């Protein structure tokens, strides 16, 4: 029999081979079910093994054999080690595996490091585990032979078993019930064999003293092991949160991060581990920053087709393939289930006064229910499936769309008013105009039709290249949105003119709805996402993608905004309805105006403006809240840097065309340096960075031609500094204006304001990419391609090195108070550090290299520029001395309803936010 049992799913055979081979080379005794034998043949191997390794993947989660093997190992209280091969689509992981520390062997993980971790885990408490296995085998044999007293433990063997039992309380795996009974039977047999009570008492007393002393020593050991195990649980939860977040399961990631944070909060010894703190805070920060999901409504047993808020926001109705309609409170409380349809329920809609609910079904009927869920009336509406049902704005009409290619209008008492026939395909969507005078219908024939209420066809909108699945009037009635199987959304004016086409979904779009204020569109798709589109400008003739909501594990069908527009509900193939919070201020705001890489971003000294420079040849000016103000477009080539004068009234830009341009705050070009009459003074290669002196009288430019040039504001070249031997990557004035720091691939140089070299130091093997002075002017921070951030004094003496990035670092910035340092790297990650090098948090959100960082003067916001064409404004108000507590409070604010009302939450998790 083998010491290690391995369970896996056959599609993962190639992936596990490397781990198996490495264990074999380490002389580990392994049993692996290569032939996929049934459980009856693997049971003895699981019984005999000291450890059971389970390879987690989407295939394994779905494998019945893997589940059976896991359940059998759990029943035998085996030590279980979960190994993660892939961290995508891991919804449905067995709860026992979810609570354990995972070992990651993904393609992106360092195999050697993961293997060392696996070996360490295998060897932890090995003596305890071997005794566990042997005692289980002895106990099973005793039980199999009618619990024969001759097979009980005696003497030193019994004492050893008792000692093992005493010390096993805090060690995995725990004793099985059969082991408890076996040891207890041995104790009782020993007691019965004692002839004299006094002797028995004496022996018992002596044993208790000895065992007490042993137990105290073992207690200390157990306490140490408990702390190690507890820390391991924190690490496991934070890594699981990271894996879930990466795979798009933000809500599940938030719960795991919350568990990690709660455990860290309760573990005084762990809080001294700065890296562990930073990892947990990072897991919490990214779920709080990017998560929108607030709750999950779980109760349907099949896909959920549609969802609808009542007009007063007090109810949510859902329609499902399980032939039911469910009524929920906004906090997720299931109030009642409405039954009556004989086939799947496809659509639900509340009347304008909220007193009536209509549901349309594949059985061709429409049921009308009162607010308490009592069936009022059943309308035999169509001879085929009813796909959509909607009340008119005055509540006097009900429109039903069907697979029979018609739309019918009804009075609420069931009287047929009219039939709209004209589509050549199934009709999936219907929408009344806000004034109630026009009806829009969407059909699988690829058209949208506009009708009068008398049944006259007014317009046919053509433009979709496939079936149209949904249609919706804007709240002001001026626009119509339609969604289709061509993966597009089209916006039309009320006269049928196509305004714009929105693309971004990767699959069929099932529907589109407007927010109550008419400024946002929500689209739901078979690609498992909901996308939010923001109407552009005052005319709102266009729209841009604002955010993509991920988390559903199946196609998303219907969506509904709450009446206040603060929450969006989405219904999905995964049998759930998710509630997304839209109104609460997020910890991030993404600015998407540029069409190419953003190379630099700067707050104005007063903090009321933001400027960004891009390879799209523009500079954009924004208000500090992210509202776009102006675009500077007279640059001839890529713009690499932008900066403000100290008074915030002048903007300077530099880039690939080797020129320096000065602008006023309204975006008017004031001056170009050098002028046409002295072009020989200019740089010979692109200009990488530009900076104003603190008095605003001097402009310094750093160029790829290995020089730095100093200019006055009138455009006169004051001096050229040529100490560098390679392109100058960055420059920074000291706060008092007396010094300039510059860095390049070859070295860092400190100059006085006249251009005299004060000190310099050579770069290591990798280029120095960025430099900045601290606000007090006493310290210089540099970033480099060696993945390090370094702090220096003004003489070039190294003070500290911050190691933590896994990729080259290209941006660095001090907070206004000088106590926090931000650094951004090639992988799009930003790290915040205390000045002593203690890591605070890693900010994740960019999809490409970070090229610029700028703190707002109030320190509460950090702006980052990236090659992913975006700027992110990070709200740092929670990143302070109580960052963990603040993030936990925010997390609990978001998941409180879910923990209170969701039926699938365990009792332990339900108390997470108590």
TrEMBL record:
Provide this UniProt record's keywords sorted from A to Z.
Chromatin regulator, Membrane, Repeat, Transmembrane, Transmembrane helix, WD repeat
Report if keyword Isomerase is assigned.
no
GO CC terms, sorted: protein phosphatase type 2A complex
One Gene Ontology term from the biological process aspect of the record? signal transduction
Domain TIR, by residue range, is: 1-129
Please give the family membership noted in the entry: Belongs to the WD repeat HIR1 family. Belongs to the phosphatase 2A regulatory subunit B family.
What InterPro entries would the database entry show?
A: Beta-prop_CAF1B_HIR1, PP2A_PR55, TIR_dom, Toll_tir_struct_dom_sf, WD40/YVTN_repeat-like_dom_sf, WD40_PAC1, WD40_repeat_CS, WD40_repeat_dom_sf
> Transmembrane ranges?
197-220
One Pfam family of this chain = WD40
Q: Which domain of life is it from?
A: Bacteria
- What is the protein name given in its UniProt record? TIR domain-containing protein
Q: Name one GO molecular function term.
A: protein phosphatase regulator activity
List, alphabetically, the SUPFAM superfamilies matched.
Answer: Toll/Interleukin receptor TIR domain (SSF52200), WD40 repeat-like (SSF50978)
Segments annotated as WD repeats: 297-328, 338-370, 379-411, 420-461, 461-493, 502-536, 549-590, 591-623, 632-664, 680-712, 721-749, 761-793, 802-834, 843-884
Q: Which Gene3D superfamilies match?
A: Toll/interleukin-1 receptor homology (TIR) domain, YVTN repeat-like/Quinoprotein amine dehydrogenase
